[in-house]
């Protein structure tokens, strides 16, 4: 199991990211998720992944978690698009260039009719799948399957938030390593703390 880098800069980035999730992405109420489940809260990860400071913090944190032999990062469109792009750009700045791949939900209707967009990699290239919010784990699994069909090696999924609703157990059951930057408990605790702090001001 990988652990988050505890350098002062990354600790600061993690706290910034946690606050952005609480401020911009986390909402309480009555919601129906893409999985069909009902929930008393909702996380719109794109509010953070498309935010300039959020994107930078995400890229730095996820880059620190990627194994040294990672040859590409990939994810299912649309949620993972800004994440894989940010990680790829920041990897180049860090002098550790890692290409990004985007997995379509349906094959392209023209040209190559491909499911995977991005640079061509050698057969057997090691690819890590990135995801914003994991609930059941099925979304990122589609990306894993497409990548494996294309001849790439995929052994790991990294997420920003684990809703702790079976995703981690599902990945374990299919032999995929899984890690999330935050659990839903991390976000809810910080959200409540921020609510209390605002009342005492």
From TrEMBL:
InterPro entries: OPRT, Or_phspho_trans_dom, PRTase-like, PRTase_dom. Its EC number is 2.4.2.10. It is an enzyme of class 2 (transferase). Residues 100-160 form the Phosphoribosyltransferase domain. Orotate binds at residues 135, 163. GO terms for molecular function: magnesium ion binding; orotate phosphoribosyltransferase activity. The keyword Transferase applies. CDD domains: PRTases_typeI. HAMAP family: PyrE. PANTHER family: OROTATE PHOSPHORIBOSYLTRANSFERASE, URIDINE 5'-MONOPHOSPHATE SYNTHASE. NCBIfam families: pyrE. This is Orotate phosphoribosyltransferase. It comes from Coleofasciculus chthonoplastes PCC 7420. The gene is pyrE.
